[in-house]
Amino acid sequence: MEIAYYPGCSLQASSELYDIQSRMVFRRLGLELKEIEDWNCCGATSASKTDDFLAIALPARNLGIADASGLAELVIPCSSCYSRMLVSQKKLLDDPGLKNKINAELTKKVEGKIKISSILEVLVSKAISGEIAEKLIKKLEGLKPVCYYGCLLTRFPCDVKVPDNVENPQGMEIVCKVMGAQPLDWSYKTDCCGASAAINDTDTSLLLMSGILKDALAREANCFITTCPMCQLNLDAYQDRVGEKYGIQKRLPVYFITELLGIAMGLSPNEMLLNRHFIDSVGLLMELKLI
C-alpha cells in the first residue's frame, strides 16, 4: 500500500538517518512511502516569525502537490513540518478568500482532501491493529525510555483536531509497550528543548535541556525516545554541553522511534545507522542483549 510522504528539510540533511529508517520500517509494515514530487521547505518556525502569509503559502504548495498525488493520506515525520502543514490546511479551509488567492499562483491547487498524519499517528494505528506485533523479531525488554514529544506535536496556533491528549500524550507509550519496552511516566514530555534557539540563544536552550535531562534521570530512564528531528538533534548533540554546564554526569541515548522499531523487527544497527549519534546509542542495546 502506498502512502504519500513529506520528509522535510531535516530528513534530507542532519537527520538523514531518520528518513532511511522510516522508509525501511514502513516497508516492513507493508506501507511504501511515496515521496511527493518537487516539494519545498514548509517554512518551519522561521516563516511564521516573519510573515503570516508566507507561513501558510509555503506549506500550501506542498498540500497542492499531495492532493494531486491521488493518495488519501500524507505522513510527515518532522513535528514542525507536521504542524505547519496541518495549520495551513485548516487556515485555508476556514478562509476561502485566502485559499483562492494562494491557489491562483499554484499549478497544483490545494483541495484540502488529503489526510495529514504525523509518523506517530500512523504507527499508533499499526500498534493498535496488531500489525506491529506481527512484525517483531524480539522484544525490547529492559529498555526504560521516557517518551519525549516536544512542544510542537500536540500544540498548535489554531484549533485543529489533535489525535492525542494535548498535555499528556500517550501515542509513543502505546508503541513502546507493543515492542516490549517499559516507558516511564515523567513531567517533561511536552516541554520545549529550545529548538532552533540552540543556535542563537544557546544558554536558554541548554537550561531547557538541563531540566529535561535531569527529570529523565530522576525517573531512572535509560534512554529518550522521540519522533521530532529537532528534539533528537538537540538532546543528542548538546547533551555533553548540558552535562558540563549543569554538573550532570550521566548521559542517555536519544533514539528515534523508528530506530527501536527497526531493532525490534530484526534490522541491524548498521542498517539503522545507529553509529551516527553523538551520544553512544549502541552500548545500551548491547548491554541489554538486544543486538
Write the layout of secondary structure elements.
Elements: E1 2-5, H1 16-28, E2 32-35, H2 44-50, H3 52-68, E3 73-76, H4 79-94, H5 96-103, E4 115-118, H6 119-129, H7 131-135, E5 145-148, H8 171-179, H9 197-200, H10 202-218, E6 223-226, H11 229-237, H12 239-246, E7 254-256, H13 257-264, H14 283-287
Parallel strand pairs: 1-2, 1-3, 3-4, 5-6, 6-7
Helix pairs in contact: 1-13, 2-3, 3-4, 4-5, 6-8, 10-12
Q: Can you describe what's shown?
A:
There is one protein chain. This protein has two domains: about 1-120, Glutathione S-transferase Yfyf (Class Pi), Chain A, domain 2 (Up-down Bundle); about 135-285, Rossmann fold, CATH 3.40.50. The model has no long low-confidence stretch (mean pLDDT about 95). It has about 290 residues and is an alpha/beta fold. The chain has a four-stranded parallel beta sheet. The protein has a three-stranded parallel beta sheet with strand order 5-6-7. The protein has 14 helices and seven strands. The chain has helices spanning about 15-30, 45-50, 50-70, 80-95, 95-105, 120-130, 130-135, 170-180, 195-200, 200-220, 230-235, 240-245, 255-265, 285, and strands spanning about 1-5, 30-35, 75, 115-120, 145-150, 225, 255. Helix 1 links the parallel strand 1 and strand 2 (about 30-35). Helix 4 packs across helix 5 and helix 6 (about 120-130) crosses helix 8 (about 170-180).
